Amino acid sequence: MRKLYTISILCFFFQTLSAYPSNFASSYPQLDVSLNCTPTQTFIVVEECEEYWAPDGVVYTESGIYTADLVSYEGCDSTVFIDLTIFSSYVTYLVETTCDSFININWNCSIFNDSITEYSFTSMFGCDSTIILDLTIIESTYANSSITQECSNYTAPDGSVYTNSGIYNYSLTNAAGCDSIITLDLQLLGNNDTTFISQSFCDFMVLNDGTFINESTIIEETHINSSGCDSIVVYQYILLPTDQTYISEYSCESYYINDLGDIYTSSGIYTFVLNNIWGCDSIISLDLQLIGNNIPTYIAETFCGQMTLDDGTVISGDTTIQVTYTTTPFGCDSTIVYEFYHTPTSSSFLNASICEGYYIDPIGDQLTASGIYTYNLTNVAGCDSIITLDLQVLGSDVPTYISQSFCDQMILDDGTVIFEDTIIQETYVSSTGCDSILIYQYDQLPVTTTNIDEISCEEYFDLNGNVITTSGIYFYNLTNVMGCDSIIALDLVIVEVDETITQDGTTLIANEADATYQWVNCDNNNEPILNAIQQSYTPLTTGNYAVIITTIEGCENISECTESNIVSNDEIFENSLTVFPNPSSGELHINLSERSDNTSVSIFNALGQLTQTKIYRNQSSIDFNLNGASGLYLLLIENENGDRAELKIVKE
Hints:
Layout: E1 3-9, H1 13-16, E2 40-49, E3 52-53, E4 59-60, E5 64-71, E6 77-87, E7 90-99, E8 102-104, E9 109-111, E10 115-122, E11 128-138, E12 141-149, E13 154-155, E14 161-162, E15 166-173, E16 179-188, E17 193-202, E18 205-206, E19 212-213, E20 217-224, E21 230-240, E22 243-251, E23 255-257, E24 262-264, E25 268-275, E26 281-290, E27 297-303, E28 307-308, E29 314-315, E30 319-325, E31 334-342, E32 346-354, E33 359-360, E34 366-367, E35 371-378, E36 384-393, E37 398-407, E38 410-411, E39 417-418, E40 422-429, E41 435-445, E42 448-457, E43 460-461, E44 467-468, E45 472-479, E46 485-495, E47 501-504, E48 507-510, E49 515-521, E50 527-528, E51 536-537, E52 543-551, E53 556-558, E54 562-564, H2 569-575, E55 578-580, E56 587-596, E57 599-604, E58 610-616, E59 619-625, E60 631-638, E61 644-651
Parallel strand pairs: 2-6, 7-11, 12-16, 17-21, 22-26, 27-31, 32-36, 37-41, 42-46
Antiparallel strand pairs: 1-2, 3-4, 5-6, 8-9, 10-11, 13-14, 15-16, 18-19, 20-21, 23-24, 25-26, 28-29, 30-31, 33-34, 35-36, 38-39, 40-41, 43-44, 45-46, 47-48, 48-51, 49-50, 49-52, 52-53, 52-54, 55-56, 56-59, 57-58, 57-60, 60-61
C-alpha cells in the first residue's frame, strides 16, 4: 500500500526564509552574485507498510520527517522533504467460548467444532492483518423428568406453572452457560374444583356474614372436596350501574310523555328517574326543542333504469324533489324532501369447484365441465343482476402444501415436538367430498449472534438511538428478518481526546500523549505550521496558537487558541533599523542603530531567488544600490550576532 502526496514549492522566501540557518548569507562570497541555477524543493507525504525506499536509495522503517538530496536534470540541487508514516502488520488473538456453534457474519462462516482458525485480512491502512480464533464449542444438554402430583398445579424450575397433565418442554442454563432442555412428563392426579357463583345488586349489599359492599367484589373461599383436594368457591358480586339516558326530541308547540303523564310546553333539559330492566335507577335526561312549524322530512326511494313520478315526470338518475305541505303529524307546517336514488345493475363473481359429477348453477342447470358461465337474473332490488360463475371440476387427490417456519422448536397439534426441518403428509376428505392430501413442511429458522467491535470518538449512537459515552460491552436482543432472536454484542471503545494545552514559558505542550500533532497559527486562519508536529511547540513570534490532535484511534480534536508573547532579537534588531526611500529607484540608505563589525545585506526577487549579496564591516549606515527590474524585492540584513531583519522593498 502506498499513498504519496507531492507538493512542488517555488522558493518564495517571503514565507520560507526563516527556515534557513542563521549563517545563510555569510556562506556566500562577499561580492554581488547572479545565480543562473534555481534549486528546487519538493514536499511529499508517504504512507507505507513495514518499510519505504526513498528516492536517494535510503530504506526507512520508522515514521518521521526525512530529507533526500538529489540533482535535477538541469544539474541543480533538488531537495525532497519526506513526511513518512510506516504502518505495521499485526496479529490479533481471539479466544471465544460459545454454545453449539459459532457464527461470524464478518467472516461468512459457521463453526461447529473446537478449532484454532486463522483468518487473513487487509487492515484499514492496506497492510496485512491476521486474526487467530481459538474457539471452544459447548453443546447444549437434554434431560427427561417425570412428575406425579396429587392436586393443584406444578411449578417448573424455570418458573412456569402447569395446571394440566401433559408433556412440556422448558429451557434452563447449565453450569457451562448453555441451554439445558428438559422434557417434563407431568401427571396431575386431581385438579382444584372451582365453582363460580355470580350475584348482582344495586347501590350496596349486605352479605350473610354482615359484610357491607358498595362496589363489585370477588370473594374466594377454599374447601376440601371428596378427593381430598382443595375446592374453591368464587363469589362474584356485580354492582349494577345506574342507567343514564340522553333523549333529544323535537316538537311543534308541546311534548307529552306517556310513562309520566307530563306535558312540556317550553324547550329545555328535563331529568326524571325510572327503574331499568335490572330494577336499578334509570336516570333519563330529555333535551326538548319546541321548534314550531317548518320541520323538514326526508323520504328516500331507489329505482332501476328509470322512474315515472306521480306528476308524470320521468327520471333516470339520482334526483331530489322538495314539496311543502300544510301540516305534519305534529300539526306544524312541514317540507318533505323526496330523494330518488338510481340503483345500477349489480354484478357478482362466483368461484365453485367439485370433485366429480355435476354442479347445479343459479338457474338450476347441471354443469359437468369446468368453465366460465354468465347469468342475467333479477336482484332483491328488482334490478338486473349479472352473475359470472367460474366452475372448476377438480377430481380427487388434489395435494395442498402448507409451509410453516419456527424458531428453536415447535409443538404440533398432536403434542409432537420438532427441533429440525420436518415434512409430514396427511390425507383428509375435503368439504367438497374429495380426497385431499395435505403436506406440511416445517422449516426451522436459526437464531443469529453478531459481535460488533466499535471505536468511537467522544460518543456513540447505538442501535436504539441512545447516546453512549462510556466504553464497555453492550448486548441487544433484536428480532431478525426471519422473526427469530438476533443477539448483538457491541464491544465499544469510547476515545476521549484531551485538547488542553500547558504553557511552560514560551513552549506550548499538548496534554494528550501518544498521538499525532499539528500546530496551527490561529491568527492566520489556523494555517498549519511547517514541521510543527511534535507534542510541544515553541513559537518564534508572538501570536495565538492551537494544536490539532489525532489519536491512534483516528479521533481528532483541536485545542483552544493560546496566546504566546515572544519578543525575539530579530524583532528588536528590525525595529532599530531605518531604510529609505521605499519605494525606491534603486538607491537605498540603511541606518543601523549602532556600529556593526560585520553586516550582511542580501536581495531576493519575487521568486525567492538570491540576486545580490554584500558584506559591510564596521559600519553604522550603509548606502546600497538595488539592481534589477522594477518590482517587489526582499531585503535581508544580518549582523555578526546572527540578528536578522527582513524588509519588503518596491523598486520603481
